[in-house]
TrEMBL record:
This is 4,4'-diaponeurosporenoate glycosyltransferase. Belongs to the glycosyltransferase 2 family. CrtQ subfamily. Gene3D superfamilies: Spore Coat Polysaccharide Biosynthesis Protein SpsA, Chain A. GO terms for cellular component: plasma membrane. Keywords: Cell membrane, Glycosyltransferase, Membrane, Transferase. Pathway: Carotenoid biosynthesis; staphyloxanthin biosynthesis; staphyloxanthin from farnesyl diphosphate: step 4/5. GO terms for molecular function: glycosyltransferase activity. Catalyzes the glycosylation of 4,4'-diaponeurosporenoate, i.e. the esterification of glucose at the C1'' position with the carboxyl group of 4,4'-diaponeurosporenic acid, to form glycosyl-4,4'-diaponeurosporenoate. This is a step in the biosynthesis of staphyloxanthin, an orange pigment present in most staphylococci strains. It comes from Acaryochloris thomasi RCC1774. Pfam families: Glycos_transf_2. The keyword Amino-acid biosynthesis does not apply. It is found in: Cell membrane.
């Protein structure tokens, strides 16, 4: 079976990382390795990360695209799985990934992300995130949607891909401060099929809780549309402040 490396970029994730790591301890089968790439946390993130079976690396700056590339360089697995520090995965994550990639034509996939809080599920945001997997490439990259089977995945969907196509397409663009996953999907789709897995992962609703559902959805939609029309990631970053 294919070996799977899990890569987690972090920056001040002390409120969420311990729970995520406890979740990963339950994986059956286990990951080949778990690599945390920190971008300069000043809270207890690094202390929490000091657990057995976890490798901790330091990135020269807090940029998720760069951090994920550094983790990929250190990974031993044939498959790379990129996980946000505030996202919970099922205990059969590795088995699901192996089953999806048992089809040699599939080189990249992701899960359905359900955005949850302590007491609620953000159904509106969850639905929008699910639909944009399809409508994004359908409306703005139709030649890739129909010709290559492109799907648009985002970080909270737990993206996974074969390691060789990851490097063949150039990995994540380390200069992009935002929308690096969308850019990546656009490039890796030329190397094989992409698949949205019919299983869920749970992502934190902290941004929605902070901004409110209406404003959060408006920002997500605006950023996605502007990127599709060619607005630079540097400019888009001004609309998407970090929330911890």
């Amino acid at each position: 079976m294919l070996s799977v490396s899990i890569i987690i970029p972090t920056l001040n994730e002390a409120d969420y990382l311990a729970r995520t790591l406890r979740c990963l301890e339950q994986l059956d089968p286990p990951a080949a390795d778990i690599i945390i790439v920190d971008g300069g946390s000043v809270d207890d993130t690094l202390a929490i990360a000091q657990v057995p079976e976890v490798t901790v690396l330091s990135a020269p700056q807090a940029r998720r695209s760069m951090q994920m590339n550094l983790g990929a360089q250190a990974a031993s697995g044939e498959v790379l799985c990129f996980l946000h520090a505030d996202t919970l995965v099922p205990d059969d994550l590795i088995a699901v990934i192996q089953a999806v990639l048992s089809n040699s034509q599939v080189i990249c996939g992701a899960f359905i992300s359900v955005m949850t809080g302590l007491k609620t599920i953000c159904w509106g945001v969850t639905l929008q995130n699910f639909l944009k997997t399809y409508w994004g490439p359908l409306f703005f990259r139709p030649h890739l949607f129909f010709g290559k089977g492109m799907r648009l995945f985002f970080g909270d969907q737990v993206i996974f891909c074969r390691q060789q196509p990851f490097w063949d397409c150039g990995g994540f663009d380390a200069d992009m401060p935002i929308m690096e996953e969308s850019d990546f999907c656009q490039r890796i789709t030329h190397y094989g099929r992409m698949r949205l897995v019919n299983r869920v992962v749970q992502a934190s609703d902290r941004r929605v809780a902070h901004l409110g559902a209406l404003k959060a959805n408006a920002i997500y939609l605006t950023v996605g549309l502007l990127w599709a029309f060619g607005v630079s990631a540097t400019r888009l970053k001004r609309l998407y402040a970090e929330i911890r």
